[in-house]
Amino acid sequence: MLVDIIAEVTGTVWTVSAVVGQTLASDEEVLVIESMKMEIPICTGESGTLQELLVVKGDVVQEGAVIARLEVGGA
């Protein structure tokens, strides 16, 4: 099952910590968004494999935008 990872704030992608195909633990950082001079880590909600990364460093994202997709559970 694919789970969307959502931007929690509007801001700029500051760093990307994960790569497509990487297995991530629950609450592991995927990327960091800079908003109003604050760095906000965006983490997985559950463990799985990163299937799609929809942003790159420097992209501006809006609150609520899908920024990545995580494959969780069995196929």
Automatic annotation (TrEMBL):
Pfam families: Biotin_lipoyl
CDD domains: biotinyl_domain
Lipoyl-binding domain residues: 1-71
Protein name, as recorded: Acetyl-CoA carboxylase biotin carboxyl carrier protein subunit
SUPFAM superfamilies referenced in this protein's UniProt entry, alphabetically: Single hybrid motif
Keywords: Biotin
UniProt keyword Cell wall biogenesis/degradation, yes or no: no
Source organism superkingdom: Bacteria
The keyword ATP-binding is annotated on this UniProt entry: no
Species, as recorded: Candidatus Marimicrobium litorale
